[in-house]
Amino acid sequence: MAMLKGLLAAVLSVAAVGAASAADAYPDKPVRFYVGFAPGGATDLLARLYAKKLGERFNQTFIVENRPGAGGNIAIQALTQAPADGYTIAMAANYVAANAAMKRNPYDWERDLMPIGMVASTPNILVVPPGSSIQSVDDLIRKAKTPGNKLTFASAGMGSSIHLAGELFKVMAGVDMTHVPYKGVTPAEVDLMSGTVDMMFGSVSTAIPLVQSKKLKALAVTGRERMKAMPDLPTIEEAGLKGYDVEAVYFMAAPAKVPAPVLKKLADAVADINKQPDVQEFMDRIYARPLTGGPEEARAFLKTEVKKWQGVVDATGMKVD
Question: Which range is the signal sequence, renumbered to this chain (predicted)?
């Protein structure tokens, strides 16, 4: 018996040393970096920035792989099914919480997902086609309440902040509008510019350049504060919907059982990258605000978001389209 115990202890010791060695060597091969939306949106832009920075830090390739669809769920489900070795990560956002509130996730985020660290947040911007007769938030509400008018709003997919902003607007303004989901912000903007859909609570990183080039018309910002880039643009709260506040909040994630030493390496790297001056300058360019916080803070944030959006689901009757 003593010999058996000694042998078991030796095996466990060798396994622990092997795991530690693997963590020390991480990453010694390319890392896949999933994005749940089409190229061009804020999720994709942030993933490509952090893939470059992580690659520089670890002297290894981080390959961005776009897996759009199901409001980001295709990418996150693939992440939860990947080996928990740190060689598959994802740029996620609070759509994880919204989809959980809608009972739409094909995974249990608390059991299957490991947040690595907070990355950034951005408000959305309410935009309409350049030739739209809608001139303001008040005008939009009046038109939406006019009998016979059935306005449409585009989004980057079910559960995205762009979709959630529209659903919250509907209930707070007391209007009915039809949601038209796309597999990313770029195809949604293409149809919006052509007038195929009436409006969008768009991603600021891509919408503002289109506003500046007169390809879209801006009505308001979804966050609590006006934007430095467009100080004359009111918030939706200022337009009369008291308490209205929607932002996209981005964080990095891995499969739940990623080894603790690997998680620490990634979390430390993200925290350091967040502080780099050129990263903060990039955030300014895409109208984002860098965030701080590691795995524990990101997990606590997600729990709070699930409760918040559960309230929106209950109030709006929001369901999967």
Answer: 1-22
